[in-house]
């Protein structure tokens, strides 16, 4: 069956929370209030469906976001403009079935219209070689390491250049064509209309 990637719906937040907190040590836990904050503010918050059931989710924010993650701050201190993948979770029964690649392809198609780079981190706990290999095969490269002060966890900080961005930015700037696949997520209360979508270089 096909994989469908779409914006999260409010009634799915409990299921997203359960997926996150069942993902194991590679994903930091969330509480309902934190997840609600992402729902209300994250410019990219999408879920994947496979066979009619929730198969995973991905949350991303631009480098201009008011985001308190120390990993996010690490990137912002070193890079002027980027799209940050805060977390991606795929249900254990769906891992290895293409859901992660579908998410990354979708996130890149969103980000490359607005940002010159994508950023994320992978925790280095001694068992994450498959995750590092996955990111490397998708074009991410390590640009440093960071130890989170509150958890003591060390992360490989990864970035990927988005080669389409310079042409898109030069040709369209922030005035992207009004077609469905270029649309940004509509936040609750239509807050997105007042938010920047990227940084022109």
Automatic annotation (TrEMBL):
Keyword Hydrolase listed: no
N-acetyltransferase domain ranges (all copies): 3-164
Cross-referenced SUPFAM superfamilies: Acyl-CoA N-acyltransferases (Nat) (SSF55729)
GO molecular function list: acyltransferase activity, transferring groups other than amino-acyl groups
InterPro entries hit by this protein: Acyl_CoA_acyltransferase, GNAT_dom, UCP028520
Keyword entries, A-Z: Transferase
Protein name: Acetyltransferase
Organism: Lysobacter concretionis Ko07 = DSM 16239
